[in-house]
Amino acid sequence: MRLGCDPGRSQGAPSDATHVFERTPMFRNTMPRYEILSGDALAALDGGWRRLITEVGVEFMSDEALRLFREAGQKVEDNTAFLDPEFVLEQVAKAPREFDMQARNPANNVHIGGDAMVFGAVYGPPFVREGAVRRDGTLADFHNFARLAQSFAVLDSAGGVVCEPNDAPLDSRHLDMTYALQTLTDKIYMGNVVSGVNARDTIAMGEIVFGGREAIEQTPVSISLINCNSPLRWDDRMLEALFEYCRAAQPVILTPFILMGAMSPVTIPAALVQQITEALSGIALAQLIRPGCPVVFGSFLSNIDMQSGSPTFGTPESGIGLLCTGQIARHFGLPFRTGGGLTSSQVPDAQAGYEALMTLLPTFLAGTNVVMHSAGWLEGGLVAGFEKFVIDAQLLEMLQHEFTPLEIDEAALAFDAHVEVGHGGHFLGAMHTMERFRTCFYRPFLSSSENYERWMRGGGKDTAVRAGEIWRRRLEEYAEPPMDEAVKAQLQEYVARRRAELGD
Amino acid sequence: MRLGCDPGRSQGAPSDATHVFERTPMFRNTMPRYEILSGDALAALDGGWRRLITEVGVEFMSDEALRLFREAGQKVEDNTAFLDPEFVLEQVAKAPREFDMQARNPANNVHIGGDAMVFGAVYGPPFVREGAVRRDGTLADFHNFARLAQSFAVLDSAGGVVCEPNDAPLDSRHLDMTYALQTLTDKIYMGNVVSGVNARDTIAMGEIVFGGREAIEQTPVSISLINCNSPLRWDDRMLEALFEYCRAAQPVILTPFILMGAMSPVTIPAALVQQITEALSGIALAQLIRPGCPVVFGSFLSNIDMQSGSPTFGTPESGIGLLCTGQIARHFGLPFRTGGGLTSSQVPDAQAGYEALMTLLPTFLAGTNVVMHSAGWLEGGLVAGFEKFVIDAQLLEMLQHEFTPLEIDEAALAFDAHVEVGHGGHFLGAMHTMERFRTCFYRPFLSSSENYERWMRGGGKDTAVRAGEIWRRRLEEYAEPPMDEAVKAQLQEYVARRRAELGD
Lengths: 504, 504
Known about the structure:
The structure is a homodimer. By secondary structure, chain A is α/β, with parallel strands linked by helices. Chain A has helices spanning about 40-55, 65-70, 85-90, 140-150, 175-185, 195-210, 215-220, 235-245, 270-290, 315-330, 350-365, 385-400, 410-415, 415-420, 430-435, 450-455, 465-475, 485-500, and strands at about 60, 75, 80, 100, 110, 120, 125-130, 135, 190, 220-230, 235, 250-260, 295-300, 300-305, 310, 335, 370, 375-380, 385. In chain A, the strands form five sheets. In chain A, strands 9, 10, 12, 13, 14, 15 and 16 form a seven-stranded mixed sheet that branches. Chain A has a four-stranded mixed sheet with strand order 2-3-1-11. A four-stranded mixed sheet of chain A has the order 8-7-19-18. The first copy, chain A, starts with about 40 loop residues before the first helix and ends with a helix. Chains A and B meet through helix 1, helix 9, strand 15, helix 10 and helix 11 of A and helix 1, helix 9, strand 15, helix 10 and helix 11 of B.
């Protein structure tokens, strides 16, 4: 059992100019993995993707990608590459099994792969919710979410598009977001993927903060989400971004975006086969672009409601898919991404609580390496919720404690405490208790165990109300992590120049 | 993957006069168990309980119990039995690894042990909550909870004291509760344990319904919770009830009641050692009373908040304890009880949702055989919540679907669907989808995935409000399961006579 109630990280591990960074106290899941696929099942899935990638193939809406596959001896017809599974596996084998990423604060450096788990906030919502108000997200909201991600030690990253800053100029808002992620947080951040141009800007801004191209190629500073337009198609703009990031050795998360019933068949095995086919085809391309480029086997797998067509989250099917995905990614020797605090609920209510955990707990059971959407996801991902952000941070803390192995030694067995207390007594004042009472149990910051009378005297506030108080207080207490003024000026100059060039 | 959205059971499997009953479609968890204790850890715990039971011993506040231990050659001083671990294991070995129970409706018979999981409602709350109202529980509430337990197919039992019927006469309310469980439900039920007298009444009423003592001894009809007054003491009234139930071969759940920090040391390993010691000592006594009597290794394990002293539920510590308990019970070859939908929350909010699942999901991972408190638990068990009852039933349905193994065959891989749909298309109208769309995914009855506009048009109801509508509708639609009028009259006669005898 980890002692100490705060899973926060120690500060100030010195920066290191070499490739191998100091191990920071990021969360490592050394508990057993929960695996549910038999050898036969894995073999069936293996047969499935080999057939699919060979006979149906994958569309790449990029001449450059098709050229690379053709030059590598693969069959290409129109936009479809029909890939030899052995060729794909050769490419996959070039990807590192694990890799490091550097953050502006070296104490926030992360390792990706193995037993390491990295947590980022929700990604992509056009709307935000605070309390009873649901509205368009703004750049101010984006800033506040970035500050909250900085504030909660349990998060390794604000992620990327924590919410869409709808009031920022469209063609240059990627500059605003990247600048905010780089200055309001000192954690790793995600790169913009709307286009190759945006990716180049993200990379250039990383070079400014981290000391040039060589430095970021040596140890990457951004990680980017490349979604497949499932089924079996990679679109042009995402691929443009992929090319840029791979050339700069910045990690990419190749993610089939699958809502079963719409983007894949309705059976989980079929969705898993498709997911393997899509992810591996993208990873093969990444390795053709730059052999050894760090990649992550991505998964975003849920299902639609077959009556209404609505996407649903936190479902039994997505839980099963998540567990299988971990096993599959390990089978291919790749770090993987899946999970998060997903829910369909419109508000941070009981459903939001149980659906988020219905995804997050399997995320820990699977030992997911990169967890996007770990905080703030609401309403099927359309909304970034301030209260939900706090609820998810609470869940992450609880789970990080739960997935820390027990230490069993003589002192933990506490025989002497039994001798001291005897039959029918209580342990509140026992020596064994006195020595440990401050740190023995995880103490939640959001959950209430107040008795009814006390809770009523405090206003009878439910979890969502308390969460609202917590995020407001966190924002009040927030202090921007210091940044070299010259670097900051250089960033601002870059943003201003590029915004002008982009005509915004 | 189980097909079909309703995990309900088929009706009308014929009654069987022999000991072995028809397998009913009760839930069986054939997924892998999640085990986190190493061999070394198990060995350390094994050494721990052996030392504790030998050197500190266990108090039994019953001369009859002490006499049995003494006659069996065990060392007894005052009320404390110092037990030889090998003797204890010999007694434990007499208990059946698995056993059957008969319900009034044979379709609701259950099996206890192995991969079978039995779910009962919350047990013991003095208060109830409906919506914003929290008040003393009444017999009318008890009836309504019993009806709801009958109504939700996912529950195998209403349990026992679903809420305390505070308006029923104290000395005879066990008769009212037993009568209600026997008539308003046709599922198995729990026996009253307030005293030996109450236990005898429960048994007598079981004899009336199921055709006499021999019939219920052959296949038991009630299961009873015998709590240890932890640490290391069994109290007199509970033991009186234990003697009665064991003599009638009615199963007992021997449960250490441990809130770490108060009733046990603050370390999980110490709590586990104590739990083994207490449970096995009670099981040994049960086997001395009647060798072969069906027993369940019980666990109720959470912790207090060390700052306020409040009990806390759905904590990381209780999750870890739960997983360990399953492994320990299997080690001793005993069916086990733990888990439930526990929460400290005062209302059915986000915390109630995530804490309930934080306990229920590990309950499934551990493969718990008997799950008390699976529906309705609120406010640390002080309150039976109507809305929470519905939320928990939703969670149980989701989990029963999630813990059903995938079927992977050629049809599930859906290769032809990919050929039909092609790249970038959608599967909504594919033949493979059309053949499966009604049953392919679990469809929740409580969770909402409505889009925002539609949800707002419907009144913008959160989960608790929707749950309130559901339980009210369920009660309206409830029909009492038919019972032979002569049997019912005999029960009523018994209740009236005994109430008079008890002076109420």
